[in-house]
Amino acid sequence: MDFHLSSEQIAFADALHKLGKDKLAPGALSRNHSPDYPWEIAELLSQQGLLGITLKEADGGMGGTLMDAVIAIQTIALYCPKSADIVQAGNFGPIRSFAEYATEDQKERYLPDLLAGKAVISLGMTEPDAGSAVTELTTNAKKIEGGYLVNGSKVFSTHSPDAKVFLIYLRYGPGLDGIGSMLIERDTPGFEIGQPSSFMSGERWSQLYFADCFVPDRNVLLGPGGFKKQISGFNVERIGNASRSLALGRYAFLQAKEYAKNRTQFSRKIAEFQGIQWKFAEMATKLEAAQLLLYKAALNADSGLPSPYETAMAKLICNETGFNVANEALQIMGASGYSQENLVEYCVRRTRGWMIAGGSIEILKNRIAEEVLEMRFDQRPPKAKA
């Protein structure tokens, strides 16, 4: 088994290193600490073909593989973690589900701006009372002539303060088969976007409110029974999430490495202390192990549908490794790592959020255990007998 990248992938990564060094590293500190969406960077990345890497050429994408997108995210993140978020938004998550299931009319209306870095799409899934138990969502669509009236609310939607269009999971009817999705534009009457709130990372989100919001038939993405198709896209989303987690852990690792080789205490470089050496040995081993599981999930996904088992494993180990390595890097750097004069503390805060988003690590463990034990475990209490 060959664990090395191909010559084409190495050349691709080399080009990304140059882009990162020349265009993304300058201004990275202020860019990452700003809550604003960096539209100028989005357009730059679009010009470099980094939005839509995994989408079909017929849809305006590059026709590349998941591995190509993983390489892009992980390389870009070494120079500017926030720029890697834009690569994620242009290749994984709602844009991927949209491109997979959208009609030609829907693609013509939305994809050009999304792939040009002039717009971003937000996913509305989580509700105040439906998080990990997403099938308990209550936002609903009532059929009327020419479309639907949507009522309900969503929380914690990534890019919601800035998005042009929202992919909203909702209920057409009762039960699992009643769940589907719609595309709702920002300025649609009856759709209100609340004031932005901030996560611990500084990233902003807004609550979404729907009150008799009319959505035309042409904006239905997946009708009743579409939930399983939509949720399968989460396996791809988890590869993108895992890539960023691991990349930010590696970013912090490299910052701490340079610090340890140059910082003098007690008349010695701190890299000469065995306790510091052991930290680096453990961090390097964890990063390498997580990288291999991530590559396995991405490569196998390119050969067919992503494996829920492999993507859950990859996200679990990359989430935990990214956070633990970033946290250890901060400890090695002491007050310098804790200071907002560099991005190591940002990496700690950012990676912590990915242990919740896109499937919490506890839900991932449940999914892995089901595969290992060849059993299905329903987390809901048993229904009372009539």
Task: Describe the 3D structure.
By secondary structure, this protein is α+β, with helices and mostly antiparallel strands. Helices cover 50% and strands 14% of the residues. A four-stranded mixed sheet has the order 1-4-5-10, with helices on one face.
Percent helix range: 40-55%
Mean pLDDT: 93
What percent of residues are in strands?
Answer: 5-15%
Shape annotation: globular
Please list the strands of the largest sheet in the order they lie side by side: 1-4-5-10
Regions with little confidence, pLDDT below 50 for 5+ residues: none
Count of distinct strands: 12
* Helix/strand structural class: alpha+beta
Count of helical stretches: 13
Largest sheet, in brief, is:
4 strands, mixed
Rg value: 21 Å
Tell me the span between the first and last alpha carbons: 57 Å
Oligomer: single chain
| Helix and strand pattern | HHHHHHHEEEEEEEEEEHEEHHHHH
Set out the fold topology.
Layout: H1 7-24, H2 28-33, H3 39-47, H4 66-77, H5 81-89, H6 94-101, H7 104-115, E1 121-124, E2 140-144, E3 147-154, E4 165-171, E5 179-185, E6 191-193, E7 197-198, E8 204-205, E9 208-216, E10 220-222, H8 227-262, E11 264-265, E12 268-269, H9 274-302, H10 308-333, H11 335-338, H12 344-354, H13 361-373
Parallel strand pairs: 1-4
Antiparallel strand pairs: 2-3, 3-9, 4-5, 5-10, 6-9, 7-8, 11-12
Quick rundown:
With 386 residues, this protein is α+β, with helices and mostly antiparallel strands. The chain has helices at 7-24, 28-33, 39-47, 66-77, 81-89, 94-101, 104-115, 227-262, 274-302, 308-333, 335-338, 344-354, 361-373, and strands at 121-124, 140-144, 147-154, 165-171, 179-185, 191-193, 197-198, 204-205, 208-216, 220-222, 264-265, 268-269. Helix content is 50%, strand content 14%.
